[in-house]
Amino acid sequence: LVKTCLRCLEILYAEFRSELPSENSSKGFSAKRSLPNRQLLVGYWGQNAIGTKVSRPYWEKDLRYFCNQHKFDIYLVAFVHRLFRDNRNRDGYPGMNFAHHCSYAPDSQNPDLFECATIGGGIRDCQKLGRKMLISLGGDTCDGSLGTTENAKKLAYYIWNLFLGGKDMEDKRPFLWTVMDGVDLDIEIGSHRYYPDFVREMRRLMNTDPSKQYLITAAPQCPFPDKWMGPQIQGSALEHYGQEFDYLFIQFYNNYCYPGDHYFLPVIDTWLQWARSVPNGPLIVLGLPAGPQAAGKPHYYFPPDKLAHVY
C-alpha cells in the first residue's frame, strides 16, 4: 500500500502538476471550476510526517505560512480518518487528525471531533488569496469501508455540515464558520462499495448552494484501475460517477508506475484516455512524493526538472 503520510512532508516540497484542457475542451472548465487555466500546484497539508525526522522548529508550518510564502493552488487538509468501522465518537461524527496543528476536542464523548479555530483562520486567509481548500478523507490508516448506502449518505451529510456549506451542525464545525471548497477521497484501506452513493449525495448537497463552486477530488494509486476508486470496477465511484469528480491526484510512486520506470508514461496515457472518455470527466493531476524522504524507496522520488518531458 502507498503510505499516504509519507507524502505529507512539509508541503513546500510537494511537486504536483495537472494537465488542463484546451479552451475548446468539452470539459467546461471555466464554468465548473474557478481555478487558473494553467498547470496547477497542489499539496497535502496537516500530517507533519516530517516530524519524526527533524526537530520541532522544522515541523510542518501552518497554512498562513504556506499561502503567504508559496504558490500552491489547492491545499488538501488531511485527514478525516475515522469514518465508521473505527469511529470513536459517541454520536457517530467522523473523526479527524491534524497532527500537532490541532487536537482539542471540546466534548469528551466525541474525542475525535476537534475544534480548530487556528486552522479555520488559516483556511480563510488562504481563500482570500484565491487558494482552494479541500478537506481530505482517508489516509493510510483509515478503513474507508462505508458498509451501507445509508452510511454513505450519512457521511456526505456530516461532511457537508461540518466542513462545507451546510447549516445543520454549526455548533460542531471543526473550523467554525469557515466554509471549505470541497472534499477529497484518499481511500487506501477497506471496500470500494457505496462510494458512488457518497459521491452522488455529496454532489447533490453541493448543488443546493449556488453561491459557491465546490470540488470533488480523489487520490487513486497509479495502477489502472485503482482498487478503491476504480474505474472499470463494478460498484466503484469512478466507474459510476466519474463525471462528478473535478480532479484525480494520482499517486505515481510506491508502485511499479513511478517516474523513471518504463510503465510510467503508458500508465499516464491510460488514465488520460479514460478521463477523456468520460463526458465532463476529471482532470488528471500527477502526484509525486515531496522529496526523497517522502517516498517508500529513494528511486520513487523524481526531481521536477527531470519531469519536464511529461509536459
Automatic annotation (TrEMBL):
It is an enzyme of class 3 (hydrolase). InterPro entries: GH, Glyco_hydro18_cat, Glyco_hydro_18_chit_AS, Glycosyl_Hydrlase18_Chitinase. It comes from Pocillopora damicornis. Belongs to the glycosyl hydrolase 18 family. One of its GO terms (biological process) is chitin catabolic process. Pfam families: Glyco_hydro_18. Its EC number is 3.2.1.14. Residues 39-311 form the GH18 domain. Keywords: Glycosidase, Hydrolase. GO terms for cellular component: extracellular region. This is chitinase. It comes from the Eukaryota. PROSITE patterns: GH18_1 (PS01095), GH18_2 (PS51910). One of its GO terms (molecular function) is endochitinase activity.
